[in-house]
Write a structure and sequence with these properties.
330 residues, single chain, Rossmann fold, alpha+beta
Length: 330
């Protein structure tokens, strides 16, 4: 139960909070995640994260705990996908771990290469391509499998700084279809995930609610902030263990028919529009699925009559785009 580290996160408020993680939290996290990923001493794990982010703990401690080698990308390589993949090939890197926006940039740059150049560059030893910390659109792993014909397995992970790191993961099938974000998957060992309504009751299948996390990874709380700790680390309503707690993520999610958890959006991204509750994250995911859209963001804003409207901002690769294209996104 001794403190292992304090790492600061701003969350959605912009005000830094010191998250306290114990040795027990960290040890469980590394063991449970390795049970899923099966890191070996022969692996070379690419480190791309800033040391200020919780993902840097995963990219450093997970491979070292299994006797694997950590290959640290330089700042120049992180800015240049072609230089990065040249290094990956040269150093025989076997595992790459990055946020989806980084994967999206790498994928776009590689897709613009001619087929022969790309094939030479991607003739490497990557066996696992991991993503975490943001929603991942299915188009990215589909491009790697279908267009690039790369054999590496894609795994998308979900976690929180307050739970030591990853709490769920999804093994992406090579033939994944659709244009939506891939699921968050299922919990890793010693982790509980609940999707609850406003009264902390389990939501029915397919109905969105707030995502709560329990288990051995839940941290001690926020440093020198009892009020914030009590607001986010709440009593476990379904446990008989004294002192058991759940962490309220503020994320909105639902359980699909396959038993996979799907990310819907942030609780603070919900808006009421003409009496209906609208998830801005779902709209962004639908728009991002259009091949002409590179990036997008959706906000709710009042017009001059005081009526709330949804406004989408987007960046596109298309020379002549038509708004009617995007109105058909679904």
């Amino acid at each position: 139960d001794d403190l292992a580290y304090v790492i600061y996160t701003s969350g959605s408020t912009g005000k830094p909070k010191g998250v306290m993680i114990t040795h027990g939290n960290l040890a469980n996290y590394l063991l449970a995640l390795d049970h899923e990923l099966q890191i070996t001493r022969e692996d070379l794990y690419l480190h791309t994260a800033s040391i200020a982010f919780s993902s840097s703990r995963r990219q450093l401690m997970l491979p070292l705990s299994q006797g694997a080698t950590v290959v640290i990308a330089t700042s120049e390589q992180r800015k240049d996908p072609l230089a990065l993949f040249a290094m990956i090939k040269q150093r025989d890197v076997t595992i790459m771990d990055a946020v989806p926006s980084f994967w999206r940039n790498c994928t776009a740059v590689l897709a613009n290469l001619d087929g022969e150049t790309r094939s030479r560059l991607l003739d490497n030893n990557l066996r696992l391509m991991l993503s975490a910390s943001e929603p991942l659109l299915s188009a990215i792993p589909r491009t790697w499998a279908a267009e690039f014909r790369h054999p590496a397995r894609h795994i998308h992970m979900f976690g929180q700084t307050e739970t030591a790191g990853i709490v769920a993961l999804y093994r992406i099938p090579s033939d994944i279809g659709g244009a939506r974000a891939v699921p968050l998957g299922r919990p890793i060992a010693n982790t509980e995930i609940f999707i609850l309504d406003e009264a902390q009751r389990p939501c029915p299948l397919g109905i969105a609610g707030e995502l709560y996390i329990g288990g051995a990874g839940v941290g001690r709380g926020y440093l020198n902030s009892a009020a914030q700790t009590s607001a986010k680390f709440v009593a476990h309503p379904f446990s008989e263990t004294p002192g058991a707690r759940l962490y309220r993520t503020g994320d909105w999610a639902r359980l699909n028919a396959d038993g996979q958890i799907e990310f819907v959006g942030r609780r603070d991204q919900q808006v009421k529009l003409r009496g209906f509750r609208v998830e801005l994250g779902e709209i962004e995911a639908a728009l991002a699925g259009h091949p002409a859209i590179r990036e997008c963001a959706v906000i709710a804003r009042n017009d001059t009559n005081g009526e709330k409207r949804l406004i989408a901002y987007f960046a596109t690769e298309a020379a002549n785009c038509r708004i009617t294209w995007f109105r058909r996104c679904s």
